[in-house]
Design goal:
Layout: H1 8-13, H2 16-23, H3 32-38, H4 46-59, H5 62-70, H6 78-82, H7 87-95, H8 103-120, H9 133-143, H10 148-170
Length: 187
C-alpha cells in the first residue's frame, strides 16, 4: 500500500516537528537539512521546496556535507545484506537490480566499496534509480580516479538527485496555476 502524497499546502502549514517527520526520508541520516528548510516556508511550489532543500545542503559547512555522505549506506553493503536499509534505500537498490546479485558480484561490490571508502572517507553515492548494475560498476571505476573534492561535489549532486526522486514520490505535483509543474533537476 502506497502512502498518499502530501499537498504543498499541508507542508507549508506543518509545525516544525511535523515538517521534519514528514520530509525526513528525503535524505539519509539526521534530518538537519529538512529541519533548516522549515524556516524557509512557505514554498510556492514543489520546485521551490526542492531548491530550498538543496540550498541548505550545498551551503552547509564541509563537515556537515561529509557527514551527510557518510550517512549513506554502501551499495550492496552490510545493511543491504542484513535487510536493515531504510525502505527508500532498499527500494532504490532493488530498482537498480542490486538485490539480485551473484556471490561474485556481491564480492565485487564489497571490494569497490572498500576501495572507495579508503580513498575518499565516505561511501560511493549514486542515484540508483537512474542506474543499473553495469553503470554503477562503471561509475565506481571512473569515479575512483577523481580527486576527493571532485568526488564530494559529484556525491552531493547524486544526493540531490535522490532527494528529487523521493520528493516527487512524497509530494503531490503543483496545481497548474502554480506555474511550476513537475520538479526536474534542470530547475
Amino acid at each position: 500500500m502506497q502512502t498518499p502524497q502530501l499537498m504543498l499546502t499541508q507542508i507549508n502549514a506543518f509545525e516544525q516537528n511535523q515538517f521534519v517527520s514528514a520530509l525526513s526520508s528525503l535524505f539519509e541520516g539526521p534530518p538537519w537539512i529538512v529541519t533548516a528548510s522549515w524556516q524557509l516556508r512557505p514554498f510556492p511550489s514543489r520546485a521551490r521546496l526542492y531548491r530550498a532543500l538543496c540550498d541548505v545542503m550545498y551551503l552547509a559547512p564541509i563537515e556537515r556535507k561529509i557527514a551527510l555522505l557518510q550517512a549513506h549506506p554502501d551499495l550492496v553493503g552490510r545493511a543491504a545484506l542484513a535487510g536493515t536499509l531504510t525502505p527508500a534505500s532498499a527500494s532504490e537498490q532493488a530498482v537498480a537490480g542490486l538485490n539480485r546479485l551473484t556471490p561474485e558480484e556481491i564480492e565485487d561490490f564489497s571490494r569497490l566499496n572498500t576501495a572507495y571508502w579508503e580513498r575518499f572517507g565516505f561511501p560511493f553515492v549514486i542515484c540508483a534509480r537512474e542506474n543499473k548494475k553495469a553503470s554503477i560498476l562503471a561509475g565506481f571505476a571512473s569515479r575512483l580516479q577523481h580527486t576527493r573534492d571532485e568526488e564530494i561535489a559529484l556525491a552531493l549532486a547524486e544526493v540531490a538527485k535522490i532527494c528529487l526522486f523521493r520528493l516527487n514520490d512524497l509530494v503531490q505535483p503543483d496545481e497548474p496555476s502554480a506555474g511550476e509543474g513537475f520538479v526536474s533537476d534542470k530547475e
